[in-house]
């Protein structure tokens, strides 16, 4: 496997990218070549500084970097030699199997959709973002922000892509797919999700484990593998949940540092707090695959540290080795181009309830 | 002030409602009559059990209770003698100044919109929900779930209602209003929010402190007083944030009870954890006013304890004493029926940035 890493991307530039690359090269022998895309002088200096030398590393020159202030599409159209553009070009041209970037999310989405195009049967790419989930370990939200103003067919495609990813990457027989809504009752939803509900329910006889409407809290607590929503809703939700976890952590820190006595006790409990952080932190879960493009694109968090970059590279390895894209095409064929079986088969496909 | 409390509403029935009533009667002498609406026998028994007797309490009979499984509108149409219906009737008929309910949110919204109707100039009611906010103490999300498929004019009205509430109840000169979006740049948004952005920006010269687009995380951390969004988005966001805080608390508890040693240390830090809980918990902030109806309706959390009910009653007192509804009508007049001043005045109305 050949992976192109946008080595300049993210809030902290090459430092966490190269440290994460070192961890991934040690952990994943499947990586035959890791392309570090960016400014060669900076990358060589950082490689030397951390003492990383591996014959699988190859530096690819990209003279520009997309700034977080750049508009997404303009950045890709104007900065043709940016690290994210060059890394994505490598996938488009068949020189790499995947691109991983912690840079400007909008630019990474624009680069992939403009350069790689979408898979047959998929109209819009979707960002699949992992959440810590108490029942299933992880639950993926799709779409976390690639596509706003989704039409019903877009959300149905997102559902099938998420289902396919979990089925093949996690080896689950029939992942549970929930539809994000403003209440768990079947009647809840807006105009778009009500239509999506009907279409996903109609796919139950074809073997889709559609569990019905779910709520924001279900993402973290209920036995659901995939939560489907429009990218506007998903982005607001993702940032709200992240913000809540951070606010909680800050409130906790403020209380635990309010006196010398509390500081002392808190120091003794450090392993416990580290355990919570590991469980609740995005770093543990890796990046977010951009599903539906004709190539493998993994978007990492802008403030990724080395562990997060390593886990994003792990996701690239998994997407390639489990052949996520060919399986998405199969799912489209199976669920969108098959006739719905007669209602007599419905009993076999009773959905697993999300709400125990 | 005469307040009708749906004494049967909520997950735990009369117990927290009456305990909260006792706290509120002690704290708010402005309450001249507190109507406890529900099944008289159950209410009298509970009053006796907790030893609450106050000449300001009056029991009003309502023989039915809306079940959480009932559909909202059907519940109001069919259970005409439910506690929430009877309590809302009292406001409609001028026998009470406000209704407070921890029962079925949809039923409370339906009862208020069907019985009280909306204020002049307001097409849709909106649920205003407080979030703990590090910069401003509290930030209100509107709409947290009353109205899905909002049109731009609905969101503009929600913005004005939220602004009016904070201005008068919190005595802020010019509250900061943000528009919930999928990114903080002006260009971000979906079709509806882009239109809302333009309309709110056009009201800056009239004195509206519209700070532009905000993200989910800003609710908890940025200097913004009101966050505006569609009720579908707001409901998903609210439940996602609540779910995250609860998941964080459970993860913390699991770590802190993993050994006898940790349990001991955690016991010594109990006041610190209680501090975090107080700060992050909805109980502290009270209920959610349903703004835009011709009356005062406060919706409390279904799992409200006595403190939460007390704070919801406090919100009713505040909405009445600060004359929120007449001020909403004034705001509609000022912002929606005034000509926009010429651009020369724009400099005076430069918005306060949300993003320091």
Largest sheet of chain A: 11 strands, mixed
What would CATH call the homologous superfamily of the largest domain in chain A?
Isopropylmalate Dehydrogenase
Q: Greatest interface and its residue counts?
A: A-B, 61 and 61 residues
When the domains of chain A are counted, the total is 2
> What is the CATH level 1 assignment of the largest domain in chain A?
Alpha Beta
CATH architecture type of the largest domain in chain A? 3-Layer(aba) Sandwich
Strand content of chain A: 15-25%
In which order are the strands of the major sheet of chain A placed?
3-2-1-4-11-10-5-6-9-7-8
Give the helix tally of chain A: 14
- Estimated radius of gyration of chain A: 21 Å
Bulk shape of chain A:
globular
The residue ranges of chain A in which pLDDT falls below 50 over 5 or more consecutive positions are 343-356
Mean residue pLDDT of chain A: 93
| CATH third-tier fold name of the largest domain in chain A | Isopropylmalate Dehydrogenase
By helix and strand content of chain A, what is the structural category? alpha/beta
Distance between the termini of chain A: 42 Å
Number of strands of chain A: 11
**SSE series of chain A:** EHEHEHHEHEEHEHEHEHHHHEEHH
Question: Can you give me a brief rundown of this structure?
Answer:
2 copies of one chain form a homodimer. Chain A has 356 residues and is of the alpha/beta class.
Write the layout of secondary structure elements.
Two copies of one chain form a homodimer.
Chain A: E1 2-6, H1 14-27, E2 33-38, H2 40-50, E3 57-61, H3 72-78, H4 83-92, E4 98-101, H5 105-115, E5 126-133, E6 137-142, H6 152-169, E7 177-180, H7 191-202, E8 210-214, H8 218-221, E9 226-228, H9 231-256, H10 260-268, H11 270-280, H12 282-285, E10 288-291, E11 296-299, H13 306-321, H14 324-336
Parallel strand pairs in A: 1-2, 1-4, 2-3, 4-11, 6-9, 7-8, 7-9
Antiparallel strand pairs in A: 5-6, 5-10, 10-11
